[in-house]
Amino acid sequence: MEAVRDALNRPLRDLRISLTDRCNFRCQYCMPKEIFGPGYAFLPFSEVLTAEEILRTVRILQSLGVSKVRLTGGEPLLRRDILSIVEGLSQMNLEEIALTTNGTLLPRLAPALKEKGLTRVTVSLDALDDATFQTINGVGYPVAQVLEAIEAAAKAGLHPVKINAVIQKGVNEHAVLDLAGYFRHTPHVLRFIEYMDVGTTNGWRMEAVVTAKEIFEMIHQKWPLQPLPPRRPGEVARRFRYQDGAGEIGVIASVTQPFCRGCNRLRLSADGQLFLCLFASQGFPLKKLLREGASDEAIRESLRALWQGRDDRYSELRSVMPPKPRPEMHYLGG
């Protein structure tokens, strides 16, 4: 079926599903431990969408154009029914079923995830030295175990593995060359992400952003790069290859080089709110329809109208928009 298009003629293609708002890391740019401490009230399990509700939603959205699904969180591998969800998605003939994880549970689950139909995985790793990485993740988790997780995913056939690194000024700028050097000459794809103003608790300020241009220049000066064309419309990472053939990197510049005009993503929170933008201040209450007996057709038409009315482009308008409360990254997913 032809993808439904929004008010700016952007097709609906990608769905990002936050399976849980819980995480076993406390990264400063996402869930700072000073706020998300032992007494923090996460969503009650009764409020979180069930596997059946998630799969029903994907089937409906597939009829409106969704062909790629990414499972996020929180930490999605904390869901006890993660394998059932992946298996259900794999029966829908989607173009891609991907998952973003901190890697802690990946060595144990990677073979089963591949067997159930997961296409590929992205692992978060913001530095290669323990002093920096353990400070960032807030729980003292060692780099070596994340590297083991990446290799476990590759061995299971979830490749190419993508590695995401969020770079913050005064925190981990030195990690740019460390990471680039480590993952050169590997089949993995390293992607650097500008520090974003998602939510309101991470203390974001523009002065802390290491720009995509700065990241590119750091690497290019040591290992010359050349641009690669996007693989598909709406791709968020600007791709580059090393001129010496040592592999590929990507840079996601959502702050300094917004890509709103090509954004084809819809986001589903763990408690069934649909968000038209990563920076939206409120979502559409899908769970209410799911749990009050609405038919698939009624839900489909509601979601069609929702997308057709979409005109969000926060990153392009960031400098002129008044501040508003926004959902946190751990709740909405990346």
Structure, described:
It is a single chain. This protein has 334 residues and is an alpha/beta fold. It has a single domain, classed as Alpha-Beta Barrel (TIM Barrel). It has a 12-stranded mixed sheet. Strand 1, helix 1 and strand 2 form a beta-alpha-beta unit. Helix 1 runs parallel beside helix 2 and helix 3 packs parallel to helix 5. The longest helix has 13 residues. The model has no long low-confidence stretch (mean pLDDT 91).
Could you state the order of secondary-structure elements as H and E?
EHEHEHEHHEHEHEEEEEEHHHH
Q: How many runs of DSSP E, i.e. beta strands? A: 12
Category by helix and strand content: alpha/beta
Q: What's the number of helices? A: 11
Beta-strand percent range: 15-25%
- Identify the CATH homologous superfamily: Aldolase class I
Can you describe this structure in just a few lines?
This protein is 30% helix and 16% strand. With 334 residues, the protein is an alpha/beta fold. The radius of gyration is 19 Å and the shape is globular.
Keywords:
single chain; twelve-stranded mixed sheet; 11 helices; TIM Barrel; 334 residues; alpha/beta; 16% strand
Task: Set down the secondary structure blueprint.
Blueprint: E1 14-18, H1 51-62, E2 68-72, H2 82-90, E3 96-101, H3 106-116, E4 120-124, H4 130-137, H5 143-155, E5 162-167, H6 175-183, E6 189-194, H7 212-222, E7 225-227, E8 238-242, E9 248-252, E10 265-268, E11 273-275, E12 284-285, H8 286-291, H9 296-308, H10 314-317, H11 329-332
Helix pairs in contact: 1-2, 3-5
